[in-house]
Write a structure and sequence with these properties.
With 973 residues, the protein is α+β, with helices and mostly antiparallel strands. The protein folds into seven domains: 2-111 and 389-411, no CATH class; 143-300, CHASE domain (Beta-Lactamase), CATH 3.30.450; 417-443; 445-548, 2-Layer Sandwich (Beta-Lactamase); 569-635, Signal transduction histidine kinase, dimerisation/phosphotransfer (DHp) domain (Helix Hairpins); 645-818, Heat Shock Protein 90; 831-967, Response regulator (Rossmann fold). Strands 1, 3, 5, 6, 7 and 8 form a six-stranded antiparallel sheet that branches. It starts with a helix and ends in a 12-residue tail after the last helix. Residues 754-760, 816-831 and 969-973 have low confidence and may be disordered. InterPro entries: CHASE_dom, CHASE_sf, CheY-like_superfamily, HATPase_C_sf, HATPase_dom, His_kinase_dom, HisK_dim/P_dom, HisK_dim/P_sf.
Length: 973
Amino acid sequence: MHSRKFLLRVVVELIVTVCLAFFVSELLLPLVAPRFPDAASRMIFLSLAMLLAGPVVVYRALTAWAYHDGKALSGDVVRPFFAIMACGVLLTTLATIWMAYESRRDSEAKFDALAERVKVEMTRRMANFEYGLKALRGLHEASEEVSLKEFRNYCEVVNPVESFPGAMGQGFIRRVQSSQRDAFLNWAHENLGRDFKIKSAGSVKEHDNYYVICHIEPLARNQAAWGLDVGSERNRREAADKAIQTGLPTLTAKINLVQDQLNHNGFLYYLAVYETGMPRNTAEERDKAFMGWAYMPITSELALEGIIQSADEMLDIEVYDDTALDPSSKLFCGHGFHFPEGGVAKASYRPQFIKSFPEQIGGRHWTVQITSNPNFDKTISFMRPEITILFGGLLTFLVAAVVWNMGSSRRQAIQLAETMTVDLKTAKDEAEQNAHRFTAIFINVPVGVALLDADGRVLNINPEGLKLWEAYSRRQLRGCSLLDQVPDDGHAAVLHTLKEAVAGRDAHTEFQMIGFRGTVRLVEMHAVVVGNVRHDGASTQILTAMRDITKQRRTENELREARSRAEAANQTKSEFLANMSHEIRTPMTAILGYTDLLAEEQHREVSLNDRMEYINTIRRNGEHLLMIINDILDLSKIEAGKMTVESVPTRIDMVVREVMELMQVKAAAKGLALSATIETKIPKVIPCDPIRLRQILVNLVGNAIKFTEIGCVRVQCRYDSTSKAVQIAVEDSGIGMTEMQMERLFQAFVQADNSMTRRFGGTGLGLRISKRLAEILGGDITITSEIGIGSTFCVSLFIDNIHDSNWLEPTEHLEAIGKVDSSDQAKAKEHKRPLQGMKILLAEDGPDNIRLISFHLRKAGAEVDTVENGKLLIEKMTVDGTVEGELKDPSPCDVVLTDMQMPEMDGYEAARLLRAKGARLPIVALTAHAMSGDLKKCLDAGCSAYATKPIDRDRLIKSVQRFHPEAMSSTVI
């Protein structure tokens, strides 16, 4: 009974001891593990509690054991035991606190480094916008007046949305006096568009002048900001005025951008533009020289979203447009770690580190608050405090146990000596392990590391260094000097670097190094002195790290060369665009001029012949303009790899006859003889694309006529049995070309030389297009030429499997086709009104196009009804006149002719809706789109046929005539 009570008392004492240890550990934990992650804090807490409770528990257990055995504990044993335990616990606790603070300082240093990286990245991103604004200011200051087209061309090259992430575009703002508002609007309507108008932001009611956004690109996503008076809103106006007075890039306060439909936090970045040559040293001078603002609308979320990645997503970042952390001024909030939704972890999480610093950007005082997140906590090493607790506790218990045993008997003293011997051996093993660890690092580091003396002789080297030397072992390098592997012209740089290292300064250089096998490498070397440095340098050892940068430098050189090639290509394209501008404006000038002459006929008498001459001139220049646009589109499709050709049985002689018919008038106008012959037997029919072949020959014959003043142009057809190729040669007696001109002739955006363009005109696209089309057809175009004699362009089409029976015999002359006999004329008269009796419903939103198309259709005999969009088209076809209603039966029309791009409801949606309602009547698509894939898009929407703009009367009538009730078996809706 007595023994049971004693045991119960011991258990209670142990429980109380453990509780007290937990309580004391809870008090010590903030000192031992300040702001450590929860998992680390719990582990340190348990270790600390065990350390505190352990000695008491051990002592009480030993006393209970001695009491159970009937032995008394001697004071000589108890006092040393408790002294050692107390000292061990105290020292271990202090060491743990010190190690915890060391870990904390390391983590804080890492946090500061990441925060600095974020600061640098944010500064770099905002500086990028300044570069864009300065470039735009340079454009305006270098030109007296930047036109809308020049501004758009500049923006297409710069591409502000891609080049400046976060920017919605870039633009130019003019300051307009209130008294000049009407004059400015007249100028804007003439130069910017009739739909331009001044819009107000609305918060500043009265102001003397307007700050109007005249140019902004890309216009599609910034339409709401075009014409906006930024001076009508306080934040925008204050920043704009500040930009004038300081001449520096200036930010607005946080605003909502009118063009940002997502209502992101945003701001405007201004840079004042001044008149070139005017002084701008003072605020008054800058105000007098002021011309306008270059500006960018920027969304802060997009502009700053990437800075999280610069800190490896280990930090959370908040940016405020104020010196105070006011939620209403928050510009940006980025989280590197996302807590799971619905959990309590986010609310209970306490960041390890928080740092706030001011940043001045564009004249605004921003405050950046950076906090660590769980990703950062994962990188914090809390092993040192735990190891210190565990190791200190174990050592304390071990020493206490040894003392306990020493106080008991001599045998215990011997055991203590043996234990200490084991401890010494363990310490030695750990030292050896550390030495092995450092050796492993030296051997396995992925750069060449060599230990040199002051003269550059090798003392030790790692395997990567052996690779640089091309040596098979360290023994081979014994006594060798680094200078032995460096060319003579590099000795001075290497010796200077070694001296700089000995002097304790930053030592870095690049030099050529020759390996033992003769390989020449470009090596980057860093050097630092190790050990004590004597005044005579006798014991100096220099640790060098060397890296092969040959490939890196080669890559940099290749990038520079690629940039040079890109700049050259850009220059070539710029010259091409300038030429295209001239070529397009020339026919446009004639069209607009003769249109004005026709408009003035009511004020003067003009003969019918003159009127017809005006009309023919307008049509001729319109066709020339269309030809230029078609050439540009063809080249774009070819260069993009979107040009497709078909392979159908094609008669070469028929294609040549058609080309002769087309070009006969042009040749006759210059007094040139145009002839075509078959020189040898040629296949009658070959697989080819007749349209593209005709396009090639028209280009070649047209060029021959253009560059020939006197003589003739001959087209010769022959078959080369060796290469199995049908050859069509276009020979002229024109000016001829040099070898250098022929080498440049087929390059993109290049003519023979600029003097040819000035003398003969033209875009220089025809030969490039012809060359690429010939290659797509499986052939080629070659050229021979002699200055003053003429040129011969030969189209070769390589053909296999030609039947012997299908050949054309040689002829001296191919007659032009296209002559219309009397029977054909009679038929033409009969079909002068081919659409007689047809009812056509036309959907078109352009009033001019409605009048033109209706005129052609009615003249062809059709009855035409018109609507302005797809919604009205559907309502016209339904019983109750609504979009949801059922279709009329019978249909009110025979054919629907619809434009595909209309407001409210376009042609695609209208066609799909008609087909969904069960309509079976023909639907003919009418669109200005001329790129590949448009026909398929229209057919997929439910259209039956396809016609392109600009309107060609004959093609339009043929497209509709296909669906004449007389030509169709049935038409059911």
